[in-house]
Amino acid sequence: MDSLIKSxxxxxxxxxxxxxxxxxxxxxxxxxxxxxKYSFFNKNKYTRNMIYKDENFEILLICWNNNxxxxxxxxxxEKCWFKVLNGELNIKNYEMKSREPLKLEEVETVLAxxxxxxxxxxxxxxxxxxxxxxxxxxxxxxxxxSCETYDLETGLIKRLKMKYYSVNGKVx
Length: 172
Description:
By secondary structure, this protein is an alpha+beta fold. It has helices at 2-13, 18-27, 32-35, and strands spanning 47-53, 57-64, 69-74, 80-86, 89-98, 103-112, 117-118, 123-127, 134-141, 146-151, 156-161, 166-167, 170-171. A hairpin with a 4-residue loop joins strand 10 and strand 11. The longest helix is centred in the N-terminal third of the chain and has 12 residues, at 2-13.
């Protein structure tokens, strides 16, 4: 993790150049042993496990049990990436057609196997329907603690306050 953090600090000084950061994350080997202390699963929800955070970026390990999902949500222009470390996820990307009334168009569905890098993301949903446990490493340039979620059934846009399940390897 130390080399990842050091590299991300250097990228922060360059305002996280998208192509360089994407290439770096794709090529960076993240041994599963290096994330073990941050790996916490919960049978009721996916877990957001904070590995590192400063004013410029944060690194999370998100742990997904089978059939757990992140609802349709936006990243509001933030530069962010995630890498599938093991297992595979299904990602649906959307384009905003209208806020009132809420209209999103699904533009792409992606099967994300180990090594897949996504980002920067705009509006998407994520589900683990692989039948296996999945771990993903997330990097958010300019950490934030809430995001908009989009409910296509009700047509509502809500602000979701996000919480960590663990911080620095300790459950909150």
